[in-house]
Amino acid sequence: MSDSEIQAGVGGVDLEDGEKKLSKKELGKLARKQKKAEKKHQYQKYWYDKMSTPESLPSAAGSVDSAQEAPNKLLKSKRFLRLAVAGCSHGEMDQIYETLTQWERQSGKKFDLLICTGDFQAIRNYGDLHYMKSPDKYKNLMTFYKYYNGGFIRSSVKMMHRSLLRVPGNWLLKQSRNLNLQEHHGLSLLDRQKIQVPPCGVANSAEEAYQQAKNIGGKDYVVKAQVLAGGRGKGKFDSGLEGGVQIVFTPEEARDKAKMMIGAKLFTKQTGNNGILCEKVLICKRLFTRREYYFSITLDRNTNGPILIGSSKGGVNIEEVAATDPGAITTTPINFETGVTPEIAKNVADRMGFKDDCRDQAADTIQKLYNLFINSDATLIEINPMAEDVNGDVYCMDCKFVLDSNADFRQKDLFALKDTKQEDELELRAAKYNLNYIRLDGNIGCMVNGAGLAMATMDIIKLHGGEPANFLDVGGGATVQQVTEAFKIITADEKKVHAILVNIFGGIMRCDVIAQGIINAVNELDLKIPIVVRLQGTQVDDAKALIANSKMRILACDNLDEAAKMVVKLSSIIQLAKLANVDVKFELSI
């Protein structure tokens, strides 16, 4: 660019008469900036044009050799990829992904070209790009750009291509409050919808198990412990039996296994140290499967609707599949108005890997499962595995069924199936007072307002070497009575809880209400264990005055980090004293 061109105007800046002229150095800098912006614009426009036109993309049957070549200059400055493409199916987006990664390899750069796949719409939340950290590298950085009503992603050089889980975010998350049905209830609901399930029957005793096996007929059976916990197959009973899912070959064996299950506690990764009492077993006819698949329907916050999740890898932990082979998982967001049409169901079945006649059976099953999901106000229906047997028939071999608790007023028949015996007594008690409580294995009680702050509080306790005894969120509108009940729940096992940390950030929640609840609880329960209170926000001065005037030995701390350190040290002192079989009396300044 010549000096005259620079003086004439650069980067859209025209110099008028009487206006102060920029120096040559400043104009040169402005020119370089404009040139760089134009180059970026051209590159973005290139990808937008190419990836917004599915017809111009390589076909699913085509190879990279026959596909269009990407300009080398663009690959050298590669940074942006289109995230959402209106009208592109999973298969088309997968093909785009494969082709672009091949281009990336050919250009000699690192294989870090990333793209999100899915049944995309014109407007899509950036949260659809959900990634998980690889075990060896934790520094994953993403920067999002918006261009022509679409999102582009710039991936940092440190990002690992294996770290991207190409499914919408939050699809594995569950509601904090819901109704989990026992497996036999779920299979019964499926059977009513004319969905094929293995012949089965529930038994409350060993003799009933024997009779159910006789009624089913055949020679091979599966005995399943009916507990509301995952990981049954790898669990262990306190009776000595290994595994909550047993294969047997005679009704007599079914009786023997049931005898060791019923009345015994099953311990799995999800039950914790307390285990869950097994009161029933399910006797199923053993089917010999040729292929096993995974299928589930749940709710996705990003698309504000149901989402179908399928995989050709069934019968195993789906989280492990997501971590090791994310490409094996397929997702399909569903529009509430249109629902699952026969075309959508067949497409999902095809992408899951069903072949020939089984594809139609699987599609029919998927449609029926979706209708059941909607009509029952479910938040999750999980079939693992959905299987094809040796005769070519499609069966739902297992069923996890979760209902939205807010639907109890119109799903009374389903909520009548609730098994409260297998739910934690303290969690049931907390639910009566609209408190979100989960029992944990530590010794530091926690009372917090807000789930996010509660998680952060537990994290900082663990950071300083402590172990939370519970998760307890009192919410944003708790009353004095609720706070008092929360303390009663936390201290229900006083031998276990050595200290309590109260962490309240008062927005909607008033700190003085929390303080009054604490005072009431301490007076009513005559608590001897130390309490550390960190209050900030609405009415915090009134709250501190209430605590000070109460003359109680409550340690107040404004800094969360210091409060966490304090409660961890106090719990350690209590624990050491208990081990030494001595009493400890605290005199804490207010």
Automatic annotation (TrEMBL):
Cofactor note: Binds 1 Mg(2+) ion per subunit.
Protein EC: 6.2.1.5
Binding site residues for ATP: 224, 231-233
Keyword Thylakoid: no
ATP-grasp fold succinyl-CoA synthetase-type domain segment(s): 180-387
Chief subcellular location: mitochondrion
Cell compartment(s), UniProt: Mitochondrion
GO molecular function annotations of the record: ATP binding; magnesium ion binding; succinate-CoA ligase (ADP-forming) activity; succinate-CoA ligase (GDP-forming) activity
Gene Ontology annotations of biological process type: succinyl-CoA metabolic process; tricarboxylic acid cycle
Keyword Ribonucleoprotein: no
Location of the ATP-citrate synthase/succinyl-CoA ligase C-terminal domain: 447-568
Region forming the signal peptide: none
Catalysed reactions, as listed in the record: GTP + succinate + CoA = succinyl-CoA + GDP + phosphate; succinate + ATP + CoA = succinyl-CoA + ADP + phosphate
Known partners and oligomeric status: Heterodimer of an alpha and a beta subunit. The beta subunit determines specificity for GTP. Heterodimer of an alpha and a beta subunit. The beta subunit determines specificity for ATP.
Protein name: Succinate--CoA ligase [ADP-forming] subunit beta, mitochondrial
Species whose genome carries this gene: Acrobeloides nanus
Organism placement in taxonomy: Eukaryota, Metazoa, Ecdysozoa, Nematoda, Chromadorea
